[in-house]
Amino acid sequence: MSLLRFENISLMLHGRQILGDISFEVQQGESITIIGPSGSGKSTILKLASSLISPTGGTIFFHGRPVESYAPTEYRKRVACCFQQPYLFGQTVRGNLAFPFTIRGRAVDEARIKELFDLFRMDLQLLEKSNTELSGGEMQRICLIRSVLFAPEVLLLDEVTSALDTENTEWVEQGLMQLHKEGLTLLQVTHNLDQSLRMGQRRITVKEGRIADCEVLHGEL
């Protein structure tokens, strides 16, 4: 059984068709990249997968059940997302990362935070910094760390390295690929063809709101 499945998905907004007849499956442990021209609908696919918006037609399944059958809080614990423009909570990095623990009524897991800081090449001294003191690369990596603190099954990524320099991009990719090796399923939108090859076992091409191609790139990464 597939982990995530789009079945004949369509989306109309303000009388205009954004997506039409989108069907694909994501298997557990896969890393899939999505490419396509600007405005083709690739980021909209991630918004649908994250349950931020609902399709006009068709059904999205998670573990064989329609996504809408899950409580939103349960689904978002299991399917996390990180977008191009990072958003931080609170005033400091520490407060930002403590927030997910607080809303779950749990003590902050300092060991887990350290593990992820090491993975994404972050200095623990950043924990005491104000959010406004962070560089773009640091902000994006903090958002990624927050997204995977509680080990989701799927991580949805929308152009998360598009504004980063080469060094920060490399650190993000390395961290994500290590998490993938540990079992995290990745579905990533990128405009970077080289990145789509490095990070995708399969690559989906979207054009004018439809899937134009789906190709196998690697058996393993």
Q: Can you give a write-up of this model?
A:
- The chain is an alpha/beta fold and 221 residues long.
- The protein has a single domain, classed as P-loop containing nucleotide triphosphate hydrolases (Rossmann fold), CATH 3.40.50.300.
- The strands form two sheets. The protein has a six-stranded mixed sheet, with helices on both faces.
- Strand 4 and strand 5 form a beta hairpin.
- The model has no long low-confidence stretch (mean pLDDT 94).
The strand order across the widest sheet is 6-7-8-3-9-10
What is the terminal separation in angstroms? 22 Å
Q: How many domains comprise the coordinates?
A: 1
- Tally of DSSP β-strands: 10
CATH architectural category: 3-Layer(aba) Sandwich
Classified in CATH, the superfamily is P-loop containing nucleotide triphosphate hydrolases
Q: Let me know the average pLDDT.
A: 94
Question: What's the CATH topology label?
Answer: Rossmann fold
Encode the helix/strand succession as letters.
EEEHEEHEHHHEHEHEE
Q: Can you tell me the residue ranges where pLDDT is under 50 for at least 5 consecutive residues? A: none
Shape: globular
Proportion in β-strands: 25-35%
Helix content: 25-40%
Report the sheet with the most strands, covering strand number, pairing sense and barrel closure: 6 strands, mixed
Determine the number of helices (DSSP H or I, runs of at least 4 residues).
7
